[in-house]
Amino acid sequence: MDDGSGADVRVLHVDDEPSLTDLVSIYLEREAGDVDLSVSTSNSGADALERLRQERVDCVVSDYDMPDVDGLEFLRAVRSEHPDLPFILFTGKGSEEVARDAFRVGATDYMQKDTGTDQYTVLANRVVNAVSQYRAKAASERYGTAIEVLDSGVYSLDSSGCFTSADGVFCELTGYDREAVIGREFADLAAESDDEIRAAFERVIAPDAPDTERFETVLSPGPAYPHDDDLLCEGHLALRPTEDDDPAVIGTLQDVTERRRRRNRLRYETRLKDAVLDTSTSLMSAETDEIGTKIEWTLQSVGEVADLDRCSVYLYDDETNVAARMHDWRGGDRCEHPERVALEDARWLLERLHRFENVRLHRVSDLPPDASDTKRVLTDVETGGFVAVPMVSKWALVGFVVFDVVETSRSWTDTEVDLLRSVGNNITHTLARQRRERELQRQNDRLEEFASVVSHDLRNPLNVAKGFVELAREEEDVAYLGRALDGVTRMDTLLNDVLTLARQGRTVGETHSIAIEDVAERAWKAVDTGDDAVFIIEDGLGSTQADQGRLQQAFENLFRNAVEHGAPCRDPGDASADGASERAAGASDAATTDGSPADSSGTEPATHESAATSASDELIVRVGPTETGFYVADDGPGIPADERDAVFEHGHTTSASGTGFGLSIVESIVEAHGWDIEVTAPEPDLGGARFEFDIGGVRSEVEPRFSLSDD
């Protein structure tokens, strides 16, 4: 790296604390490894600018918070004179906003000060890397300039601006044969206005003209021009002396179309980078209830800057191998991406996303023969160019983001794809934060519920138990102890229900594919239903992915609720004649297919049949399928329509012996699986309560069954 002028790398460290600049200088020179690195110091931005004008400096390391000129103002001043000089903002007063502004102004790198000396090793490495990249870029540009000169076409013009000669490079560059241009006026080749060429020619042949004149114009290419777009050229003209003093001009011509493409691409990538930075800041600061809106704004912002037609976020469930579209944006009246994508529908695509690869296609026809399933999915929604980036959490695929254009092809650069991957990462982290905040809120809610029960609901049975114990002691009558035991039993029931909510909450353990019918049967056998209950399971319940133990708990609570509230005039196991006669009418329509009576013992459920005409004191509980899940219904007194939304609230009960937490536990189990539950209108032949489970899949308003990690 040595250029003969001393140290390999010269660093200017700018900080208003002299003791710190001395310390940093010592460590940087020590930690630079094999690189001969020297550090000069300055304590103000103004002094540092003057040093840059007088000395050779390979890299600037600057603090942010300085009294005369802050780090960003100093950076702007440096960039006005040294556009590409490596500049590292090394500050103790850092923030995301400062980092974002530093990169926008043109910082090469950003590093926040820390405690300890290890940070100086990192800083030294960053300095050496920045200088190496800067020097490699400069060498590449010098080499590129030499190549451009070699690729220049050479021609000569007479005093009227007509071609007198043109070399082979000129003809190859413009697509014209030499015979086609000799004698033709150069300005005639202009595609639009010939003012640039004519003005440059007139200036160079004028008296006291400059040595050379530069011009830039768009030429109409000749028949042999190999490209479809216009020919943007940069030319130079110089006066060439002749023997007869008749002015003649010699010129060079370069095709700068590719240079314009690179310039436009750089401007576009800068705009896209700014959009990614802006949206990431917005996502990081979003409140939990506005994250969905901010994600869709992110998709729109990136989509408009990148000139895309559609952007969609999919969350992937590795238990069902199905991805569900959660958020999307579309430009104009474009058709939507599919709502759901199963593994078997797009195996080629999803297998690559499972390997955490970015997937890019310039056109759908580029797909290999073994990707016919993926091609069918993309063709159905008119996809042209396409990029999909994985959403990764705890080394697992939790979703992906799709960016595409409709019908047309699209070339994607590495920088562009990397920036789109950053968008996917930002969305992943934002959803993870949302999940953490929701879980924290739920934990706080459960703590408040627990405190409420301990401070209020437990006080009544405690007072009852205490009062009857005192009566038993004062009157020496042990009969009062039975009443006291009732209060203790009530307290025990309340504590068990509240601890269930506090410990399990809205989470589930490992899930498996389970038969709903089997879980319902086990739950029925586990509940004390007395001798007067009939259990009916209809055909077609099927299977689902669930935590078997917690789903069984939900069934048990619903069955216990049916028994507790099953008749208006009796407690479980003690039916009245009035309550029995009311249910007998509802049960009379539920006969078995062969006419045999249903088993009312309560020990073995009557499955796969309708209910037979039951005895007058029987309670009927039935489980059956729906289009999106299943239901649990009974022929008890039912739930009034105006109370159906309140039954899942903690402590809501109409039974003197109930705790009001049974249905709340059911709701928490349902939500933990990503399902929905609601109280619906009663079954026509039963007339009692009916609870409907919707297990139809992941929906945007429900927490997904899978959880995003804390990464």
UniProtKB/TrEMBL annotation:
GO terms for molecular function: phosphorelay sensor kinase activity. It catalyses: ATP + protein L-histidine = ADP + protein N-phospho-L-histidine. Its EC number is 2.7.13.3. Residues 139-208 form the PAS domain. InterPro entries: CheY-like_superfamily, GAF, GAF-like_dom_sf, HATPase_C_sf, HATPase_dom, His_kinase_dom, HisK_dim/P_dom, HisK_dim/P_sf. Pfam families: GAF (PF01590), HATPase_c (PF02518), HisKA (PF00512), PAS (PF00989), Response_reg (PF00072). CDD domains: HATPase, HisKA, PAS, REC. The modification 4-aspartylphosphate is found at D63. Residues 565-619 are annotated as: Disordered. Residues 598-616 have a biased composition (Polar residues). This is histidine kinase. GO terms for biological process: regulation of DNA-templated transcription. Residues 453-699 form the Histidine kinase domain. It comes from the Archaea. Residues 574-596 have a biased composition (Low complexity). Residues 10-128 form the Response regulatory domain. Keywords: Kinase, Phosphoprotein, Transferase, Two-component regulatory system.
